[in-house]
Specification:
By secondary structure, this protein is of the alpha/beta class. The protein has 7 helices and 11 strands.
Length: 254
Amino acid sequence: MFLAINSGNEFTDVGVFDSDKLTFRAQFVTPSAVTADEYTVKLRSMLDVSHTQFDGAVIADVSDVDTSVISAAVKRLTNGRIVVIGPGVKTGLNIRIDNPAALGANLVAVAAGATAKYGYPAITADFAAATAFTVIDKDSVVRGGALIPGFALSLRALSDKTAELPRIHVRENASYSVLGTNTESCMKSGIVYAAAAVIDGFVRRYKAILGADAAVVITGRYAKLASKYCEERVIIDDTLVLDGLAAIYMRNIT
């Protein structure tokens, strides 16, 4: 068994894999500051297992937590190899952007997960702190993508930067009309349908660039909500990042 950890700006996902099968998953709010000791305690209490059960680990970190802190904590839970997503790690992808090393570790994992599970070409959208699109062509080349403010960030900006608009929340299991009839419903319909329209718009343009149909895979906290109102056909994959980390881990130890 091995650990997969995706440390994001808002949340950290932790997965336990037995070979390529995800057997356990948990999530916690990413701390703004933490020591290796504190991180170790958090992981041990969450996993409730001894260190001898893990043969290794794979880490993607784009948060404020220093990667060395996460690595130090994980070393206490395993005697095996720890793969940290970054330059020199085998991903199965040919990253052809201006600076390949600058591609976020989480987006590398998303792209690896999408191509491992759904093939090429693929278009991904990760609804995290930022909404990030990534385009992979039929030759497994990461061509580029786009970054826009995330769902929660957009909601906060709408209320924080205006005098009279309230702070609101949207719920995954609720239904929203494109025609709001009061301030709150207008804000909710605006944020939800804007996210869906962004997906549709980018996907259509990316398919034109690829010159072919492509698997469209979306993941992240608000992926399911946004997908309800998409016109394009999308695949919702809640474990895409962790599965991508697992694929990269297996590629680097075999």
